[in-house]
Amino acid sequence: MTATPPTPELDVLARLMNPDTLQDPYPFYTWLREHAPVHRNPTGGVYLVSSNEAARTAYQSPDLRSIETEELPAKHPRWHRSRALRLLTQVITSTNAPEHTRLRRAVSRHFTLRQAQRLQTAAKRHCDRLLTPLATRLKDGETADLHHDLTQPLGMNMAGDIIGIPEPDREPLTALILQVLASIHPTSDDDTLEAGNTASEQVEDYFTQLAAERRDRPTEDLISALLTDVTDGDEKPEQGLNHTEFMVMLWGLWAGSFETTVASMDFGVLALLDHPDQATWLDAGPAETKAFVAETLRHSPPVLVDAVPRIARKDIHLGGITIPEGADVRTLHGAANRDPRAFPDPDRFDPARNTSRMVTFGHGIHHCLGANLARMECAVALSHIRRTLPGLTLPARPLLRTAMSLRTFENFPVTL
Questions:
Q1: How many domains does the structure of the chain reveal?
Q2: Which of 71, 66, 57 is nearest to 96 (CA)?
Q3: Per the domain annotation, does 7 fall within a domain?
């Protein structure tokens, strides 16, 4: 296909924030893929990629890099004023090789399929504990909010188990993180920004104290495991992490470890209810459940647009468009995942299809570290809901909202 020149005045990012588009962005994604598979947005000057082939190329291209620290103030005008932004822009996804390789090596062994299988027991325990009172209320005729009563606390507790945050601290720490994330939204006012800075400092203080406790009394969690390779000071070690990198890693993992997974679980429940004929896949066994989860992640990815900039090292050609050196390139996951050139009849929910070309978790060296854990949590949640709450229905469509670059849920009302 020959790419049609992008419509210069079309603000795709603003369009995606429109409530009607947010509820169902896929007709717009189809139009965008057909008319401008790589589109230069008038606000921010970012190039937005909506075709699957261009998205996968962008993820693995050596001609695209992460943003350098000295470039951040120009990309994020509030960078100097936001402690949270300064921390989040140092996370592993925002680094280039060889730093990216070193940081990923230090943490990747803790995010394996084997670890996901070990944590499955904890996920089942949390799920059973949350579902028991929820099922009682629903059977008594109440309407419940599945997002607030099940998927959000499940995601929070799994993140807490993985990282090593004691259960009594999880809810207050989550409240602080949500306050921080609200402060770095482009529309936040000065008071919200200041509240986010205060909350960010509290989170850092908390992790500093928790790390000190784990040094004295290590347990089977990510904090204790990472501490074995943490050096004092800020010199970059050949292996492991320095103190600042360790704190940034913890901060980033807690901030980003459960929001996307919670949204994925919610979309999975929506798929279960909207496609009852396909929901029987959840009854058949682990392989079929895995396939149902994979199709959910392809069909309804929670990420609207990549939050991490990828900068062109030189003029490059992508999707029939020349992208100039220094330009910022981002992928629209939902558009790339429903590209008919990669997925025949892409709007149809079909767990039998091959989902290997989806970009929900990125691609190549930028493939998400937590992908195995996210898939496992979704599989546990959906199979338990299917078994425990037969007859689950929607009294109203769940309300979607944006949380930074995510398409997530404000609520999820359900009845029996």
A1: 1
A2: 66
A3: no
Q: What is the largest CA-CA distance in the chain?
A: 63
Question: 103-144: per-residue pLDDT in tens?
Answer: 667 677 666 667 777 788 999 999 999 999 999 999 999 999
Q: What is the pTM of this model?
A: 0.87
Answer yes or no: is 297 within a domain. Answer: yes
d(CA 48, CA 37): 8
Four-residue CA torsion sign, 214, 249, 304, 190:
positive
Check: CB of residue 116 under 8 Å from CB of residue 373.
yes
- The enclosing domain of 36 has a CATH number of 1.10.630.10
DSSP H or E run through 52: helix 52-60
**pLDDT at residue number 73:** 59
pLDDT below 50 — which residues of the chain?
1-5
Q: What tens digit of pLDDT does each residue of 153-195 get?
A: 999 899 888 888 999 999 998 888 878 777 766 566 778 778 8
Token pair 């602080």: residue: 176
Alpha-carbon distance of 255 to 182, in angstroms, equals: 12
Q: Is residue 227 part of a domain?
A: yes
Residue 33 near residue 50, CB atoms below 8 Å: yes
Q: How far apart are alpha carbons 386 and 382 in whole angstroms?
A: 6
User: DSSP readout, 393-412?
Assistant: B-SSPPPEEEETTEEEES--
Tell me how far apart the alpha carbons of residues 137 and 11 are, in angstroms, rounded to a whole number: 44
What is residue 4's predicted lDDT score, i.e. its pLDDT?
44
Is residue 143 in some structural domain?
Answer: yes
Residues of the domain holding 82: 12-414
